[in-house]
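# step 3/5: fold
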Amino acid sequence: MHQQPIPVEIWTLRAKNHADLIAPQADAFLKRRGLGLKHPVLDFLFTYYSCSPLKLKQWVPSFEETLIITPEVRKENSWLTNYWFISDGNTLSVNRERIPANTFGLAAFVEELCSNVLQKPPRFGCYGLHEWAMVYKSSTEAIRHKGFRLRLSPEELASFVESQSICCSHYDAYRFFTEEARPLNILNPLLDTRLQMEQSGCLHANMDLYKWASKLWPWIGSDLIAKAFLLAVEGRELDMRASPYELTDEGYEPILIETEEGRKQYQKEQQLYAERSLPLREELRAFCKRFLTLQKDPLTTSATYI
C-alpha cells in the first residue's frame, strides 16, 4: 500500500489541532483526579473507556501514513522514538512489524459489528431508561453518583420505571442494571450476542465507536479516534441529561423523560445523534477493512471483545 509522505508543516498542524480539541477534556480529568474530585458526566469517558488521557492527547499517524521529519522536529517530539514507530532517513511511520496478531481479530470483529449495525433499522423507543434501571430500588449507598441527588423520590422513580417498557439492547448498559430491574427488560443482551443485538439507534452503541477506535491505536491514527471521542462526549452528555440525576448545577439541563414531552425530546435528540454517528461508523468499518489487508495469515478463531 503506497504511503504519501506528509510534510512537517502539515502533520504538525494536525497534531496541534488534535491537542486543541482533546487536551481541554483530558487535562481537566487529570486535574480532577489529582485533586480527588469527580465529575458525574465526563469522568466516564476516562474511567469506563480504557484509553488513557495521555495516549488520547498524543497525536499519531495511522498505519497508512508516513511523516517527513527533521532533526529539530525529532528533538521536540519525544513520541517519535516510541516503540510503535520506525524511522527511515527523514521519514517516520507506524512499524507494521509490531502489529500484534490479535489486533487483526479485533479489527475483524469491529468490521463485522459495524456492518451488522449498519444493515439494521435503528430503534428509538428506549427513552434512555437504562440510567433509571441502574438505580431502580437501589440503596443510597449503592447509587453510582451518590453525591448528586435524584430528581424523583425512590418511590416515584420506581413507579415510573415500572410504568415503562424497558427495551435495552446494549450489553454494557444492561449489565449495570440493578438485580430488581433486569427482569423488567424485554430484551436479554449478552456479551456473546453483541453482534446480533446492537443497533444504530442505541446511544451507547454509538458512543462505543470511541471504544473500538481507541482499541485499534496506534494503527488507526489519532484523527479518527478524536472524532469518536468527541462524539462520545456528546452521547454521554445526552445520556446523563436524560438520567434521574439532578445535574443542573453542573450545567446540564435535564430531559424529563418521566413526562411525555420529555420522552419526545429524548427521542428526537437520540435520532439526531444516531445520524451524526452514521458516517463515523462507516469510516471505522472502512478502516478495519483496509487494515485487514495487512494480515498475512487468515483468521482461524473467533473471539468476543468487550
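# step 4/5: annotate
The chain has a mean pLDDT of 95.
# step 5/5: archive (pending)
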